[in-house]
Amino acid sequence: MKQKILVTGGAGFIGSNFCNIHREKYDIVALDNLFLGTPENLNPEITFIKGDACRMSDLQKCGDHFDFILHLAGTSSAPMFTDEKLSEAYRNSVESFTTMCQFALKCGARKILFASTSSLYGNNPMPLVETQEVVPPNHYSVTKFLYEHCARCFQSTHKELDIIGFRFMSVYGPNEEAKGQYANMISQFVWDIAREKKPVIFGDGNQFRDFTNVADIVRGITLAMETEKKLGAEIFNIGTGATCSFNEIIDQVNVAMGKSVEPIYIENPVKETYVRGQHADISKISNVLGFKPTVSLSDGIRAQVDNLDISRIRETSSDLFREK
Ligand SMILES: NC(=O)c1ccc[n+]([C@@H]2O[C@H](COP(=O)([O-])OP(=O)(O)OC[C@H]3O[C@@H](n4cnc5c(N)ncnc54)[C@H](O)[C@@H]3O)[C@@H](O)[C@H]2O)c1
C-alpha cells in the first residue's frame, strides 16, 4: 500500500510541484481553497479537494488517515498583509496551521512538514544560518515565526510526531502563473520580457537572492519526509548556497529568449525593511539529510523560457508600477 500524504495549499505553486513529482510513489490528496492556486496546476490523476485548511470539516473530507501532512496553505507573501486585510491574513495563516496540527493527531500522521520562510532573516549577516537570532521584519514573517514556535510547543507534548519547518529561499519554477504579481521575480521577468514589457526594478538591480528551483525545494522536503532519523521540531534552510542579482537575472532571461529588453529602475518604495541580499547557509540540511541542490540557475531559467505559456500569464508587479 502506498503511503498517504495530505498537501494543504496543494494547488498552489510549490504544492502542485510536490504533488506532480510524487503522484506515482505516494497516494496524495491536495486540499486548496483556490485563493491563489488552481487545479490546472495539478496532474488530473491527483485527488483534489476544494476546501479550507482552517476548517476541520474540510480537512476531514480529505480522508481519515495520512502518514504525512505537508502544510503550504496560508497567506503566502508579505504584500498580502495590507492594513485592510491584516486580520484576515493573520487568521488564515495561524488558524490553518493550528487546525492542521489538530487534524494530524486525529488522522495518525507521523510527520508534519511545513513552510516557514527565509524572509524571517530580514537583513541579518550572511550567510543566513538557522542558529541566528531573528527578528521577523514584516507581518508575513511574523506568522511563519509563530508557526515555528507553535510547532516546537506542539511537538514537546506530542513527541511521537515530527514537525519540521523549512525556511525556503527565493523559489522559482513552473506553475507560478496563478500567483501573478506575487510570483517570484524570475517568473515575472520572464513574463515581462516575453511580452516585450520593461521589467520594473526597485533600486539599482544589485540586490541579490539565493534563487532556488522548486524541484530542489521538493527534494529537500522529501528528504526530511522520508528519513528514518527522528527529527523532532527541526528547522532547515532550503536554498542553493549561491546568489544572483536582479540585473544578472534580466541578462540571463534576455539571452535565453534572444531579446534585449532593458529594465526600468525606480526608487524603492519598500524602504528600510527591504531585503538587500539573501545567501543561505545550507550546511544543516546537507549534513543531516544529505541535501544537494541539483538545478543550476541557467538550466532553471532555460526551462522557464522553454515551457512558457503566454495565455496563462496574469498581471505582473511591473505592470502595476509601470502604470503609476
Ligand atoms: N514561493 C516562495 O518563494 C516561498 C518562499 C518561502 C516560503 N514560502 C511559503 O511556502 C508556502 C507555499 O508557497 P507558494 O509559493 O506555493 O504559494 P501559493 O500561494 O502558490 O500556495 C499557497 C496555496 O495555499 C492556498 N491556500 C491559502 N489559504 C488556504 C486555506 N486556508 N486553505 C486551503 N488552501 C489555502 C492558496 O490558494 C494557494 O494555492 C506558503 O506558505 C509560502 O508562504 C514560499
Topology:
Layout: E1 4-8, H1 13-22, E2 27-32, E3 47-50, H2 56-61, E4 68-71, H3 86-106, E5 111-115, H4 139-157, E6 162-168, E7 170-172, H5 185-194, E8 200-202, E9 208-209, E10 211-213, H6 214-226, E11 235-238, E12 244-245, H7 246-257, E13 264-266, H8 283-289, H9 297-306, H10 317-322
Helix pairs in contact: 1-6, 3-4, 5-7, 7-9
The chain binds nicotinamide-adenine-dinucleotide.
Nicotinamide-adenine-dinucleotide binds at residues 8-9, 11-15, 31-37, 52-54, 72-74, 76, 92, 96, 115, 117, 168, 170-171, 179, 184.
What does this structure look like?
The protein is of the alpha/beta class. It folds into two domains: 4-171 and 211-238, Rossmann fold (3-Layer(aba) Sandwich); 181-210 and 243-274 and 296-322, UDP-galactose 4-epimerase, domain 1. Helices cover 35% and strands 16% of the residues. The chain contains ten helices and 13 strands. The protein has helices at residues 13-22, 56-61, 86-106, 139-157, 185-194, 214-226, 246-257, 283-289, 297-306, 317-322, and strands at 4-8, 27-32, 47-50, 68-71, 111-115, 162-168, 170-172, 200-202, 208-209, 211-213, 235-238, 244-245, 264-266. The strands form four sheets. Strands 3-2-1-4-5-6-11 form a seven-stranded parallel beta sheet, sandwiched between helices. A two-stranded parallel sheet has the order 7-10. Helix 1 crosses helix 6 (214-226) and helix 3 packs parallel to helix 4 (139-157). The longest helix has 21 residues, at 86-106. The N and C termini lie far apart (56 Å). It binds nicotinamide-adenine-dinucleotide (NAD). Residues 8-9, 11-15, 31-37, 52-54, 72-74, 76, 92, 96, 115, 117, 168, 170-171, 179, 184 line the site of nicotinamide-adenine-dinucleotide.
